[in-house]
Write a structure and sequence with these properties.
The protein is an alpha/beta fold. It has eleven helices and 15 strands. The strands form three sheets. Strands 7-8-9-4-10-11 form a six-stranded mixed sheet. It starts with a strand and ends in a 7-residue tail after the last helix. It binds adenosine-5'-triphosphate. The site of adenosine-5'-triphosphate has 12 residues, from β2 and α1. This is ABC-2 type transport system ATP-binding protein. Belongs to the ABC transporter superfamily.
């Protein structure tokens, strides 16, 4: 199946600054795609280009297998719900009144509005003024606005921004549910933790460039956990293993694959270094990111 979003060489320059550089996105159907990167890495700019809100400097965009052009825009965009930057909503109107504006603009029915509010669990708060909503409720109203048109694709820019852990969990559950119903969800965040728990495919941006795209497992596969070798003779072991560092009870070394590990163990054994244990260090996704970004860190 062709991806719901596919870009080739997507690039956006603002004067002499390249905000998005040669991006090849591939967002499969029916997944939560986590679009991750630090502030200023180009996530919003990319999403705006996908929605036809800003023109790429170069490159191509395909949505639902169709090139995004001026001519195809009117056909394709109604299938996409979006929330870019701060959630929409007039504070002096109620949630319901805000949704009515969306209904009128998009020519929707009251039933669609009711359903969207129910999906984000705002039905019982729909008569409240939006300025009295919590941040989480405002975010959910923004998502309801994006959902009202029954989109096949949702594009959400930082929908968990500023939420407390319970609010994040609520949005996470909602987005995973929507993907379960076949809606493709592209969601950006600058926080690794928020994305990791909901996305099955990750795209990671750093300074406008995609440094990784794939599943979480593929991400882990790209990174080799450090090896820890327990020995009672760390000084001898260090002499045999260039680049190793001493740890309590042994030495630690990075970048050894399976074959290299076997050769290393053989070398240590031949040098009569007593080996009590050889193990991989447990790694968090955060560690893997650190590796990818050259220990400079992503976030
Ligand atoms: N209209 C614009 N004119 C000039 N530069 C811009 C414009 N929009 C974005 N930029 C620059 O492009 C880069 C990428 O910005 P963008 O907002 O896409 O990043 P982001 O990853 O979404 O970050 P954030 O989470 O902070 O919004 C930044 O350096 C930003 O200053």
């Amino acid at each position: 199946m062709s991806p719901v979003i596919a870009t080739r060489g997507l690039t956006k320059r603002f004067r002499d600054h390249t905000a998005v550089n040669d991006l090849d996105l591939a967002v499969p159907q029916g997944v939560v795609y986590g679009f991750l990167g630090p502030n200023g890495s180009g996530k919003s700019t990319t999403m705006k280009m996908l929605l036809g809100l800003t023109q790429p400097t170069s490159g191509n965009i395909e949505l639902f297998g169709q090139p995004l052009t001026r001519a195809s825009r009117a056909q394709v965009l109604p299938s996409i719900g979006s929330m870019i930057e701060a959630p929409a909503g007039y504070g002096h109107l109620t949630g319901w009144e805000n949704m009515q504006i969306v209904r009128c603009m998009l020519g929707l029915t009251d039933a669609q509005i009711e359903r969207a509010l129910a999906t984000v669990r705002l039905t019982e708060h729909k008569a409240k003024l939006v300025r009295n909503y919590s941040l989480g409720m405002k975010q959910r109203l923004g998502i309801a606005m994006a959902l009202a048109r029954d989109p096949a694709l949702l594009v959400l820019d930082e929908p968990t921004n500023g939420l407390d852990p319970a609010g994040i969990e609520e949005i996470r559950t909602l987005l995973v549910d929507l993907a379960g119903q076949g809606i493709t969800v592209m969601v950006s965040s600058h926080l690794l933790d928020e994305i990791d728990k909901m996305a099955s495919v990750l795209g990671i941006l750093s300074a406008g460039t995609m440094i990784f795209q794939g599943t979480r497992t593929q991400l882990f596969d790209q990174s080799l956990p450090d090896l820890v070798i327990e020995t009672t003779a760390p000084s001898e072991a260090l002499r045999c293993v260039p680049g190793a560092v001493a740890t309590s009870g042994g030495i630690q070394v990075s970048g050894y694959d399976k074959d290299e590990t076997a050769a290393l163990v053989k070398r240590l054994a031949e040098a009569d270094v007593p080996i009590h244990e050889v193990r991989r260090v447990h790694r968090s996704l955060e560690d893997v990111f650190m590796d990818l970004t050259g220990r400079g860190g992503l976030l």
